[in-house]
């Protein structure tokens, strides 16, 4: 019994060491640990195939936590009813799975679910889950979306772990669909866009991943079509006025500071990279042609 009672203290001490070694604050490492262990419970539950990991945490995992940290977990629901009560019950069941070695206790009696409506067009469900490690507490936020198209199909990934425990093996979005959704948001929101994370995420992916142009083209075309976004020629988001705008550059610097991103990256350099990556595919789709080049993350060019 004594050992069991000491598990939370032991885990907390190990997480503090991880924070020191990686020059991160403990609070962000603790949150990431809670997110990771929720994903592990999902991976061994009957709901593994029902929720596909997407968004910031998925991108964070691809770069072994060197990319943008994330405060919430985004999922795409897969062959499961979008009724609030149904989604809430799923996560009550998932969080009821006991994993004594990780020291976490999920408060299943206080799990809440609410309807969310983002970008005026797409409804989802937001789940909030209280979790504790001894006396330390966090509240996880999960945003569940419905109905998006994934190109290519989702694949199983092994989510990286902070401590020596079993990895969550979960289904995740394709990288191409992640880029397509973020690109569509950039185009549809245009000059009123304040979502700096979308620009940053695509930039990081262009630095670290190679892409098949035909697959990325299909993902972008399907996403734009589903969301009713047209391929307007000479779009403002690709112009110099867009990336030299003073207010937008201030938003960018505030975004980097808020997330503790030490490496200074100018918004202009980010947009020039995104233009190199995305304009060729955007124009090919506008002209209803096909794109067969390969993106090389080392040369930062299509070949």
In words, what does this structure look like?
It is a single chain. With 303 residues, the chain is an alpha+beta fold. The chain has two domains: 2-173, no CATH class; 176-302, no CATH class. It is 46% helix and 18% strand. The strands form three sheets. Strands 1, 2, 3, 4, 5 and 6 form a six-stranded mixed β-sheet that branches. A three-stranded antiparallel β-sheet has the order 9-10-11. The chain starts with a helix and ends with a strand. The mean pLDDT is 92. Keywords: Transferase.
**Structural domains: how many:** 2
Shape: globular
- Helix-strand category: alpha+beta
- The low-confidence parts are none
Topology overview:
Layout: H1 2-21, H2 26-43, E1 51-54, H3 55-62, E2 73-77, H4 84-95, E3 104-106, E4 112-118, E5 122-133, E6 136-145, E7 155-158, E8 169-172, H5 175-189, H6 196-208, E9 211-212, H7 213-226, H8 240-244, H9 246-258, H10 267-286, E10 294-296, E11 301-302
Helix pairs in contact: 1-2, 5-6, 5-7, 6-10, 7-10
Short description:
The chain is of the alpha+beta class and 303 residues long. 46% of the residues lie in helices and 18% in strands. The strands form 3 sheets. Strands 1, 2, 3, 4, 5 and 6 form a 6-stranded mixed beta sheet that branches.
